[in-house]
Amino acid sequence: MSSRIVLPRSGRETARRITEGLSKGSFLRVVNFHNTVASGSDELDRAFAAAARRFASCSERDVLSFYETGRWPKERPGLIPVLFEGYRNNYEVALPLLEAHGFVAWFLLPSAFLSVPAAEQRSFARAHHIGLVDEDGDRVAMTWDEVRDADARGHVIASHTRHHVALDRSTHDAVLEDEIVGSQREFERNLGHRVRTFAWLFGSEYGTDPRADRYVRQAGYELLFSNFMLQRIRPQTHAPTRP
Amino acid sequence: MTVPGEDTMHDTMDAATLLAALELDEHDDPDALLRSEAERCRARNNNEEGIRMFLVLEDVDGGPAPSTGPARENAVLAGAFERVLSALPSDDVGPGEIATALEVVADRWFDVGTDDRSDDA
User: Fold this and answer.
1) What whole-number distance in Å separates Cα of residue B79 and Cα of residue B74?
2) pTM as predicted
3) Is pLDDT larger for residue B6 or for residue A155?
4) Residue of B46, B49, B60 best to disrupt the A interface, most CBs of A under 10 A
5) β-sheet bridge partners, residue A81
6) CA distance A186 to chain B (A)
7) Checking phi first, is residue B90 left (phi over 0); if not, alpha (psi -120 to 50) or beta?
8) What average pLDDT does this structure show over B99-113?
9) Buried b (16+ CB within 10 A) or exposed e, B106-115
10) Among A16, A62, A101, A130, which lies 20 to 30 A Cα-Cα from A76?
11) Residues A208 and A170: beta-carbon distance below 8 Å
12) β-strand partners of B55
């Protein structure tokens, strides 16, 4: 998967920047999850319990505050548990366990997936690089009600494009706009507020394609979550986001 | 493979000190061990397994990136990344090599610079 990343600069320069960021302590720890099936809940519980002894929760507000002040506001280092794709098992299995151990979950959601009728979700997933596991029932995606509930409980809801697509420099402008700005509109319509964080399939960075960067700013995203970086994008408009 | 940022590592920690900090100094062939770790990380099923990772912070509008943590531990992580990258067999430094190196570092040394607070968990 990682070999499909499009980098905005050479690999050597990217590696140099990562080395510099690590050496300055300018980094955050994340754990990336996709499916979190019920049969693995005991193992997840133990892992989250162990993590809670070493790490603190990390919200978007914590990240933005870290950028504003230059200092991490908590005694323990922050940890971001990332739940990719909006699987039903993320909401039903991982979320209660993360809450029990005091963590803020970051849901990176391809917004169109959430509106696909249950009977069509598996075929949508197969067509859009969304991995499946053997589970009972048709519905594999979170519902918008579940997304709203996670949002209301203080977890991070973020855009992972509309259709789980990767950044490709040959992509037509209209598609870029739909996947970036259109996804934001979909979240705004369903949550009642904009989301602050955006991520591409395969994790491309801001700076890879000026057209994409322009749409990211137009949509009002403030953080871009990529494979190697969590980039701060200072808002140029002041459209309402979650308070 | 040429090690990107090699000077940075040497400014902060010499190779022997780094190997000791990474608890690799007892191994006959640390590079072989790291290549083996890289293969193990590449073989994981990320669809069903949590994958640890470090994300570097960057203000794309030129503001200062925040920083935190004990300087020595940060130097250990930076040195570990360089060391793993240099141990990989590829002559190129591409996205795949970078991702693998970061995954190995995160998998082995995620807790560097943290304390286990079992008593107040």
Assistant:
1) 8
2) 0.92
3) A155
4) B60
5) A31
6) 26
7) beta
8) 94
9) bbbbbbbbbe
10) A16
11) no
12) A28
